Amino acid sequence: MGIFKTNTLLLKKSVFFYISLVFAVILLGSDVINFAITAAEHPNLLPLSWRITFLVGHVVAFLLFLLGYLYSTDGGTIPPHPIALIVFVTNVVSFLMRMIYEIIYVDYHPMS
After folding, report:
1. Are residues 98 and 59 in contact, defined by beta-carbon separation less than 8 angstroms?
2. Tell me, what's the pLDDT at 93?
3. Nearest partner of 73 among 13, 7, 24, judged by Cα
4. Which of 111, 103, 105, 102 is nearest to 42 (CA)?
5. Residue 48 and residue 112: Cα distance in Å, rounded?
6. What's the pLDDT at 17?
7. Which of 93, 99, 97, 27 is nearest to 60 (CA)?
8. Which residues contact 3 (CB under 8 A, 6 or more apart)?
9. What whole-number distance in Å separates Cα of residue 102 and Cα of residue 53?
């Protein structure tokens, strides 16, 4: 009975929240760095492939949050997990910063 009972992080339902939080913090940091470098130096820094990669990263982070939310509410517990609100806000703020960056500097980036 005790041999098969494992309590690792990978078997918990909240692991998707933590992975999404790591993605969101990394993307938030990259957004802040992009704003700082673009404002201080030359606005022609990121090629289109990098910008698309950042946007796909935001989608992955939000999908991981949704997976964590769905798995944690599977048992019917509301609120699902204490970190859920923090992860959601971090993902939304990071995505909004990326969208603001893309809108402000749309004319400065090369399209190839």
Report:
1. no
2. 93
3. 13
4. 105
5. 6
6. 84
7. 27
8. none
9. 13
The C-alpha atoms of residue 54 and residue 31 are separated, in whole angstroms, by 9
Q: What's the average pLDDT block by block, 10 residues per block, for the chain (112 residues)?
A: 51 78 91 82 71 89 88 68 84 91 74 58
pLDDT score recorded for residue 56: 92
Question: b/e map of 51-67 (b: 16 or more CB within 10 Å)?
Answer: beebeebbeebbebbeb
Do residues 24 and 83 make contact, with C-beta atoms less than 8 angstroms apart? no
Report the distance separating Cα 102 and Cα 109, nearest Å. 9
Cα-Cα-Cα-Cα torsion 106, 107, 109, 110, nearest 10 degrees, comes to: 120
Tell me the C-alpha to C-alpha distance, in Å, between residue 32 and each of 1, 28, 59, 98, 106. Answer: 50, 6, 18, 9, 17
Between the alpha carbon of residue 85 and those of residues 27, 79, 82, the distances in Å are 17, 9, 7
Q: Please tell me the predicted confidence (pLDDT) of residue 60.
A: 93
Distance separating alpha carbons of residues 91 and 102, to the nearest angstrom: 17
